[in-house]
Amino acid sequence: MADIVSSQTRSRMMSGIRSNNTKPELLLRRGLHKRGYRYKLNDSSLPGSPDMVFPRYNAVIFAHGCFWHRHNCHLFKMPSTRTEFWSHKFDTNVAGDQRAVEALLSMGWRVGVVWECAIKGKSRISHEELFLLCDKWLQSSEREISIEGVK
């Protein structure tokens, strides 16, 4: 199926997609801040530049978009055009995510991933439940957590 917009329009649309300060990330940040958590944003000195770094808890949280990080949920759908390009793009993103998590864990950091589907879409969980899960994990000694929408 051909794209319904011109390549110039598609390029402009794609360039408008944010990598930082996305709506799910802002919601997560506001909720955790309201609960008293303080954090650094996008620390480029750490592998993967985590979205939130909690030095007091020796923990980092990534807010991953389901499309860009190829999450197995209803928010991810492989594009039907240029599948080789997109497959390579997603493979690169996922491999980078794995490298960052492994490096952070080996440095002694605890790593959390909050998936977009936990925050929006038909499988989302309540915001209260999301913040409760983050709170419990930050207060625990668990090394990793992955929070996603209900299946």
What is this structure's SSE topology?
Blueprint lengths: L6 H9 L7 H12 L5 E2 L10 E3 L4 E6 L18 H24 L3 E6 H4 L7 H13 L4 E4 L4
Parallel strand pairs: 3-4, 4-5
Antiparallel strand pairs: 1-2, 2-3
Low-confidence stretches: none
Report helical residue fraction: 40-55%
Order of helices and strands: HHEEEHEHHE
When the domains are counted, the total is 1
- Strand arrangement, largest sheet? 1-2-3-4-5
CATH H-level superfamily title: VSR Endonuclease
Strand content: 5-15%
Instruction: Give the overall pLDDT as a whole number.
Output: 90
Structural class: alpha/beta
Strand tally, please? Answer: 5
Q: In words, what does this structure look like?
A:
- This protein has a single domain (18-147), classed as VSR Endonuclease (Endonuclease, Chain A).
- The relative contact order is 0.16.
- 41% of the residues lie in helices and 14% in strands.
- The longest helix has 24 residues, at 83-106.
- The protein has helices spanning 7-15, 23-34, 83-106, 116-119, 127-139, and strands at residues 40-41, 52-54, 59-64, 110-115, 144-147.
- It has a 5-stranded mixed beta sheet, with helices on both faces.
- The model has no long low-confidence stretch (mean pLDDT 90).
- By secondary structure, it is α/β, with parallel strands linked by helices.
